[in-house]
Predict the structure.
Amino acid sequence: MTDPILLTDGQMREFIANGYLVFEPTVPEGTHEACYERLNQIIDSEPNPGNNILPRVPAMRHVLNSPEVRGALISVLGPNYLEHPHRYCHPLKPVEEPVPAAAAKERLRRNCHQDGYTPMGHPRQHYLRYARIMYYPQDSPVELGPTHVIPGTQFNRGLTDEDRARALPLAGRAGTVSLTHFDVGHAAGVSLLPIHRQMIKFIYMRASEPTAPTWDCKSTHWQKPQCVESPYDLELAWAHTWDWLCGKRDRYASWPKAAGDVAALIAQLGPEVDLARRLVAAQQLAGCGVDAAEAVPTLVECLGTDHQAMRTAATYALGAIGAPAVGPLAQALRAAGREADQHEAPPAWNEGATNMEDAAQALAAVGEPAIETLCALLAAESEWTQVNAAFALGEMDSHAVAAVPALTRCLEEGSHRLVRTALVALGNIAQGVPVEALGRMLSADHPDWQAEASRRWVPRDQVRTNAAVACAQLGQAAAPLEAQLFRALDDPCGHVGAFALSALQRIGSPTATQAAMDYLYSQRWDAAIDGERQF
Ligand SMILES: [Fe+2]
């Protein structure tokens, strides 16, 4: 395999701000034509193969293993990234009737969405932990309906008409690949042509926290990218993400510290002030750090219901202010929990993608000064408060190692929402995690986890899947779980086996590797077989 082509500093900065990049992979001649032809045959003659699309068209591995795709994934997710078992072919069939321009425009507007996580819900996350690859095996001009992207929407809790009006086509030649932040808004385009359009989606996950830049980094100093397509200046959030990706322990290291007139800046935060000026004020308050403590109540008011850009700026300003923000943010999480308790299940919990409270995102950005309070909230009365606290701790990665005992206790709970979120947090923290507790979760069950929740999955499936992902994130530290991971390969839920396979591969002992290879050989696929050819 040729060396991966890593992203440059400039490409990384643009990806952080805009949420997407487009490039063309180097593959053996004829790869795209062969993939296109095979995909057309499959889509014309049988049900969509869903997660099995890659073994049905194994030549697509040349795209996924190309130096450009591997390099981009390593840059954004780290060298040990995980391949998610969900993949999907999104075909648009040849168009038979002309589509009026107005109808095409309206259809595109309605197609705009943020993806749900799959198969069951997962919190949306600002940090780069999930990424999506979209591959077009055919020339994809605008008339063929390539996917559209809405730059800068990766921090959004939803899309507005303002966002939908900014959808841009990712048109390109055969072989074009886009890399997107998982939560960025996008839309299936509308085809006007009488030929197949194929787009195949693959999902990748970060396995461990950044400890150093994993791209072709020449300088860890943050600079605003040359090409910003986000309509709002959220440089505070971008710089914070950059510092996290650089592996800096201070995720605000790049943000300039400056004294400011805090009272005057607070006056600029009011809803009557122009949005651009409010954003500047919130981000300047971040530079004041703890000296802007007086701004905390006003910034907390911006969370939850304000304009998306203002919420993002306020979230990261509160994170920069730090310790003085912890109490009011914890109060906000308790209040959200009391509100959620009025319902049978937390209304914000969605078995597609869950928007955690902005206050939880802000507490995650605060980091260590928030850990003790968040650990106390893990034992709060409200399930929704607990779930948000577990999420915030997980977003801190190894900074939250002191929370491991409290998060491990959450695994004993009956709330699958809390257990699932705690497992994600433990996998992200990945230090001091008691592996025997994770091992138990690989086969965990509970009477409340049996009812179908989404896409024919029951909560037990997602609990076990999250446990297997956490094992894969632990790498060699999961070695004592080899026997449980062997058994997990046979779990009736395919994702559990897929992530157990990744965990065994990362343990890397001769026995783990042998078990992984045996499992893969038994699943070996002959892509030449179809309805007519049986041998
Ligand atoms: Fe989508």
Notes: The radius of gyration is 23 Å. Residues 9-205 form a domain with the Jelly Rolls fold (CATH 2.60.120.620). Residues 113, 115, 186 surround fe (ii) ion (CB under 6 Å).
